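Predict the 3D structure for this chain.
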Amino acid sequence: MKNEAHARIKINQLLMEAGWRFFDNEQGRANILLENHVRITQQAMDAWGNDYEQTKNGSLDFLLVDSDNKPICVLEAKKESLHPLVAKEQARKYAKTVGARYVMLSNGIVHYLWDTTKGNPKPIYKFPSAEEIGAIKNWDPDRNALVNEDVADDYIVKVQMPDFAEKPEWRGSIEASKDFIWANGLRFLRDYQLNAIRALQAEVGEGKDRFLFEMATGTGKTLTSAAVIRLFLRTQNARRVLFLVDRLELEDQAWKAFSAYLKPDYDTFIYKEHKSDWRKCEIMVTTIQSLMHNDKYRNDFAPTDFDLLISDESHRSISGNARAVFEYFHGYKLGLTATPKDYLKGVDPDKVRENDPREIERRMLRDTYATFGCEGGDPTFRYSLIDGVKDGHLINPKVLDARTEITTQLLSDEGYAVVVPLEEGEVSESFVHRDFEKKFYSEKTNGIFCQTFMENALPDPITNEIGKTIVFAVSQNHARKLTEHLNELAEQLFPGKYNSDFAVQVTSQVGDAQQMTINFTNNNLSGKTTWLEGYKSCKTRVCVTVGMMTTGYDCPDLLNICMMRPIFSPADFVQIKGRGTRKNTFEYKFKNELNEEEIIRHDKAVFKLFDFFANCE
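Done. Predicted structure below.
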């Protein structure tokens, strides 16, 4: 009985927090009715007729009524030791008897909301208000419209340039119109992206509302998301979409992409820049951290504000406490991940330590698949790196095993790592072996690392200077030392060309680090290259980071990746490797002797992965 009383106290409090009233007050009449504990008005009795008489001898716990005093929701309460779903069928019977469409099930700790006319009970993190239930009731999207929408390869292009097929530059096919497509930034969907969208449509047709796309880095998850967003908005299965990321640079990246793909039909806002008028947009992009700070997601938003939620790199952005944000909102849920669950299939959960990154990621991936209704391990759609390489959309790296006697000895020692989350989404690996850092930070070690890279780096195919590179360091202090070494070597090899701009440290300790990552992608970090006037590549060739440029960071013309630290996390390894798998075309336009425009193009056919610690092995 004590257990049940605790549950009732919590449920009473949750109802009052949501604006429901046990008694008449200045806000209005009581709209919570308790069996045998409140006076039932004659108006309510007349409205229910015989149905109420059939129920009043049962055990209906709470009945919530609308502004006309008509039943809208049955709330069935269970004691804390019982899962609320055990009362599902009992509550359905009561709801049917009194004519209430909605059911809430709660034990004071775990809560569900259920529209009994469709779908299954869905977990909720707070009780909806009367207004929110009314909004849910009045929102009646047509699933069949979404399922039957014809999504072709020009689904996004028809937003970008509705009359593209009528332009004289359009030659009737994608293959014949490459220059026209390139010049206008048109984005046609690839076959596998169409297959992902059609898989989602099929699952919607089966009554599902949670989906997971497992797509390798570089296969266009953001473009696929844009097509999904248009699908939901165009068929009026969503009025507003929330796109969640876990890093600031990804927030800006997503905003730019959706604006390029979906404007002018739909507006995309970044929440922190539109806190007062975000309701004017159809697509809102934000970091999960922004919504978690001071419980903004609870205080500033209603659970019904978004009808579609997309979680980018979902095994990171909905892990731990962030899951509460994701589950708070009603609506369809789509998860995106580049980390295949099979990557951890060889991990024995009984033999890994609690703080081992493999065990942490095993749990994160398991929870991710369960969250999106894929408990069996099969996502809604899967497209792997192997698929992308086989189909010609991605490239595999040329791996340079750059182990030295020093790093081999470090790996053979008893050093190990603990993953520590830092501010702004960085992840640090703190090495706890007594001699590890001392050896790692030695001038000799770093000198060998940097010299090996400088002698073997892939060059830019247009200028022949060292190609754009990301170096992954152990820590911020290590990143600083590597940056110094690289700039000293660059001055020796290319005097006067860089003036200490060859390499820059891009970590959270550096001011404007987030903007640096964007500038590196846009080829204006430290200005333009001095090697060839008019060529669109940046002066800085190397960004040295710890973890800011891993997950979701797009830099298609990246040619070298250096793992100057051991990578203990399988997901981090997949992400770091994925920075270079994208194909790209290097292009230089110039006037020849006849003053005619010529174009030199080189396709990116390979990228080089420098592995100093046998990470690939």
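Residues 62 and 462 are 72 Å apart (CA to CA).
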